[in-house]
């Protein structure tokens, strides 16, 4: 079956125009010490997949191409949890289609946003894809700069998600170093209690409270109650939704410190 051309010749950029597009790439990647982005192209039509891959390479991104969606999904466990990039997948493919690829990625909570391209767009399909988190559904033929804009958006989302994951792990490591006694004091700090009030409620000396409080700020690397509160809230938002929000921080992982 013949399909429309992948890109419109009328919209092809000349070298100077494409250079301007490439210059717009954000330097945030190196600043955040992120891994190099990889764009994964999935299309059971080899010619169409090659065309998209060649276009993405002109954007100076590494590209990995798959004709079989199952091969891509099988390769996911081998990817780093910090992998930055995105997936560009055709919608209609034999076996696993683009929507199922999107669903599988959602189930695995990957950091790879999805762009779907199709020559047979339907409103209902587009709505389903966007509701499931797709960055965009592009009709073939699409413009080079249109795809470039969505790839930029997808990679930016990916970098932000990797950054959140790293921050979450960093905070978790700090919380783990707090003893149960430290955490009792942390709870009271979050409630706005004064040191003397804490001492009475926990039936310990004021000096003990001061020492535990000092330890909490040292371990959490916080300079103020406001910063400490922000850290707790940051972590809470990444906890499972089943944890009551008002008590979530009580379930933070910890280990006793000798």
Automatic annotation (TrEMBL):
The entry's keywords: DNA-binding, Phosphoprotein
GO molecular function: DNA binding
Annotated SMART domains: HTH_LUXR (SM00421), REC (SM00448)
Keyword Membrane: no
Example of a GO biological process term: phosphorelay signal transduction system
Gene3D superfamilies: 3.40.50.2300, Winged helix-like DNA-binding domain superfamily/Winged helix DNA-binding domain
Residue ranges constituting the Response regulatory domain according to the UniProt record: 38-155
Domain HTH luxR-type: 171-236
Name of the featured protein: Transcriptional regulatory protein TdiR
Organism: Lacipirellula limnantheis
Gene giving rise to this polypeptide: tdiR
């Amino acid at each position: 079956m013949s399909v429309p051309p992948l890109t419109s010749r009328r919209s092809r950029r000349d070298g100077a125009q494409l250079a301007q597009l490439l210059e717009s790439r954000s330097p945030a990647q190196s600043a955040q010490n992120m891994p190099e982005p990889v764009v994964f192209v999935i299309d059971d039509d080899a010619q169409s997949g090659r065309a998209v891959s060649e276009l993405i390479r002109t954007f100076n991104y590494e590209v990995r191409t798959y004709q079989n969606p199952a091969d891509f999904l099988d390769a996911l466990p081998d990817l780093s949890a910090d992998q930055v990039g995105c997936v560009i997948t055709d919608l209609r493919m034999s076996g696993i289609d683009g929507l199922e690829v999107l669903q599988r990625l959602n189930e695995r909570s990957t950091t790879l946003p999805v762009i779907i391209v199709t020559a047979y767009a339907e409103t209902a399909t587009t709505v389903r894809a966007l509701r499931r988190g797709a960055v965009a559904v592009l009709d073939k033929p699409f413009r080079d700069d249109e795809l470039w804009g969505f790839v930029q958006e997808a990679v930016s989302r990916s970098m932000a998600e990797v950054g959140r994951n790293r921050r979450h792990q960093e905070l978790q490591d700090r919380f783990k170093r707090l003893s149960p006694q430290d955490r009792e004091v942390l709870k009271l700090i979050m409630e706005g209690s004064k040191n003397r009030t804490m001492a009475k409620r926990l039936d310990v000396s004021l000096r003990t409270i001061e020492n535990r409080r000092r330890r909490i700020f040292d371990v959490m690397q916080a300079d103020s109650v406001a910063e400490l509160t922000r850290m707790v809230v940051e972590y809470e938002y990444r906890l499972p939704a089943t944890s009551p929000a008002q008590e979530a921080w009580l379930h933070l992982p910890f280990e006793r410190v000798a």
